[in-house]
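Batch manifest line 113
LIGAND: guanosine-5'-monophosphate
JOB: complex structure
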Amino acid sequence: MPDCLFCKIVEGIIPSKKVYDDDYCYAFRDINPQAPTHILVIPKTHIPSFAELNGSTEALVGHMTSVIAKIARDEGLTGGYRVVSNCGDDAGQTVHHLHFHILGGKPMGDRMA
Ligand code: 5GP
Ligand code: ZN
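JOB STATUS: finished
ARTIFACT:
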């Protein structure tokens, strides 16, 4: 098993504020929120980043997109929201386990996160 922060969050070794949970993915509140609502959605399997996605992960990622939309509805983000996946060093990815940020609750302006 990789020594991975988000794998440890999935396993409950590191505590997190759960927002959503199913057999395939887990969502929790970001520890350092950049918006009033800042949620991370991650696969339960360890995938390092967006760059590793391929045909074999299509069903999983398709499912995650539906989960993201459901979470946004449940969180009442009626004014809109941003979905971000930082991939690799140039994007500033700091945790190397695929994750989608859901950011909302305020106008996001020109900044990406
Ligand atoms: P990245 O910079 O890789 O796109 O995003 C990683 C995100 O994980 C950051 O927004 C950071 O605040 C969040 N994060 C890092 N460590 C923890 C943690 O232990 N718990 C939670 N809930 N979020 C974390
Ligand atoms: Zn992991």
